[in-house]
């Protein structure tokens, strides 16, 4: 694919890096010449130092032959207007825009929802934007998924299935410490799959003779209701979290608080969230910005909202923050999130969740005791790449510190694997099919070697990033 990226910030450069590693033709544009010199030294792609909102610049970058335009500048307005401008001349090019203003995002979604019949035809979407990515929603969704599991760890969920992938850390002396992968089924009698193993040296797709050791992090695929059994096997336990403090009254904080307070869409929730909703006095919001505090107090009148600096030891002591069961740091100051979460964990807070910039910072955060670290940049890049992979790939999730991906895919009628048994096409050590759902079925299942591949199969596949092109061949072209 030929992809043009406008905006060479952290997200833009990470997106370009991943697309280049998959052998895509990438052009990146930014008006800052110093930034572009730095990018040119790091990435093997065309780099243009110019304003990306200029149609002449986009044409110089080759938009006439491009498959997609991704707008990632710091300005929502520039991103949206540039997509609209490009769409008037090149409507066949897929346009993706990052938008940080919640009002823009919400109004666009409402417009599409209210005029669904029009947009399902040949009518172009608002502003010519095929996919609008809202980072705060992506981050809040990840935090809320962790909340549903009592903040034990990051959790990857899939739509329309009870199965999910949860990283589980093996404690020393637990039943899993020293066990072989091939022996795991003797420990538990529920459907599951070991997706990956992560240790100090590497992350990898395991085989039967892989030996599990203390401090290994295992990616377990199982049904939500069975995850507690795996936590017990690993030596971990879900704590009873009754007192929760949310630091950050921005949009991410509001989306998380909405979930806890159940003021929006009704969700199937855990016992933990049910308890919080019955005992709202045990949920507090903290922010040092007076305007944000006022907005939070108006939006959540039953919740105590403190105007305070969470780094102020006097406030921590006065409100006895160290006695809380869970601290969620959801500000856009990612370094402060890490420091505050680690410090409060060290003085008594049972569980901590914090928002960080990238998977690299997430690894650092976990290494110093933070329970759940949400890398916002990676969640945004995953969302964008999911839109770029074509109709066969419906979603992309980065796992295991960024080394592996889990793809949600549809097997094309042009796939060369149709009619074959899974055991005859498997490539151990390269990719692993986790789940399968037949076209006329409602339920996903963990396939075995005798499962037959058929057109329309909905698959969840774990794969090394550098091997995604092979999976694309496996899936077949969709004939767009």
TrEMBL record:
Record domain RCK N-terminal: where: 1-117, 241-374
Assigned GO CC terms: plasma membrane
InterPro entries from the UniProt entry: K_uptake_TrkA, NAD(P)-bd_dom_sf, RCK_C, RCK_C_sf, RCK_N, Trk_Ktr_HKT_K-transport
An example Gene Ontology molecular-function term: potassium ion transmembrane transporter activity
Cited Pfam families: TrkA_C (PF02080), TrkA_N (PF02254)
Domain spans labelled RCK C-terminal: 153-236, 394-477
Keywords, comma-separated and alphabetical: Ion transport, NAD, Potassium, Potassium transport, Transport
Stored Gene3D superfamilies: NAD(P)-binding Rossmann-like Domain (3.40.50.720), Regulator of K+ conductance, C-terminal domain (3.30.70.1450)
Matches recorded under NCBIfam families: PRK09496.3-2
Name of this protein: Trk system potassium uptake protein TrkA
């Amino acid at each position: 694919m030929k992809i043009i990226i406008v905006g060479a910030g952290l997200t833009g450069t990470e997106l370009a890096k991943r697309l280049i590693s998959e052998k895509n033709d990438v052009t990146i544009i930014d008006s800052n010449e110093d930034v572009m010199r730095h990018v040119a030294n790091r990435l093997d792609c065309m780099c243009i130092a110019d304003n990306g909102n200029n149609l002449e610049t986009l044409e110089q970058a080759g938009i006439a032959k491009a498959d997609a335009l991704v707008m990632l500048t710091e300005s929502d307005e520039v991103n949206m207007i540039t997509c609209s401008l490009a769409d008037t001349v090149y409507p066949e090019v897929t346009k993706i825009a990052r938008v940080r203003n919640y009002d823009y995002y919400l109004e666009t979604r409402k417009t599409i929802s209210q005029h669904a019949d029009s947009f399902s035809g040949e009518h172009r979407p608002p502003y010519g934007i095929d996919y609008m990515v809202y980072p705060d929603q992506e981050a809040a969704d990840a935090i809320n998924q962790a909340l549903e599991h009592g903040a034990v760890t990051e959790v990857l969920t899939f739509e329309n299935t009870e199965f999910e992938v949860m990283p589980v850390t093996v404690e020393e002396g637990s039943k899993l410490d020293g066990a072989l992968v091939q022996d795991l089924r003797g420990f538990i009698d529920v459907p599951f799959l070991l997706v990956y193993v992560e240790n100090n040296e590497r992350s990898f797709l395991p085989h039967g003779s892989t030996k599990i050791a203390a401090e290994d992090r295992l990616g377990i695929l199982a049904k939500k209701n069975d995850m507690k059994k795996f936590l017990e096997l690993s030596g971990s336990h879900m704590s009873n979290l009754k007192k929760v403090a949310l630091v950050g009254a921005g949009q991410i904080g509001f989306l998380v608080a909405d979930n806890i307070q159940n003021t929006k869409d009704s969700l199937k929730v855990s016992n933990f969230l049910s308890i919080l909703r019955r005992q709202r006095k045990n949920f507090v919001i903290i922010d040092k910005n007076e305007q944000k505090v006022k907005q939070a107090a108006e939006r959540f009148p039953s919740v105590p909202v403190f105007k305070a600096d969470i780094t102020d030891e006097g406030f921590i002591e006065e409100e006895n923050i160290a006695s809380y069961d869970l601290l969620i740091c959801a500000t856009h100051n990612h370094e402060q999130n890490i420091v505050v979460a680690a410090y409060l964990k060290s003085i008594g807070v049972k569980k901590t969740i914090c928002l960080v910039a990238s998977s690299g910072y997430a690894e650092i955060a976990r290494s110093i005791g933070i329970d759940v670290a949400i890398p916002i940049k990676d969640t945004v890049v995953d969302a964008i790449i999911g839109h770029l992979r074509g109709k066969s790939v419906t979603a992309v999730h980065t796992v295991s510190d960024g080394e592996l991906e889990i793809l949600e895919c549809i097997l094309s009628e042009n796939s060369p694997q149709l009619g074959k048994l899974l055991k005859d096409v498997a490539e151990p050590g390269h990719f692993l099919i986790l789940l399968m759902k037949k076209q006329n079925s409602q339920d996903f299942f963990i396939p075995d070697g005798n499962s037959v591949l058929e057109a329309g199969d909905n698959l969840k596949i774990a794969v090394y990033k550098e091997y995604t092109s092979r999976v694309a061949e496996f899936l077949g072209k969709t004939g767009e």
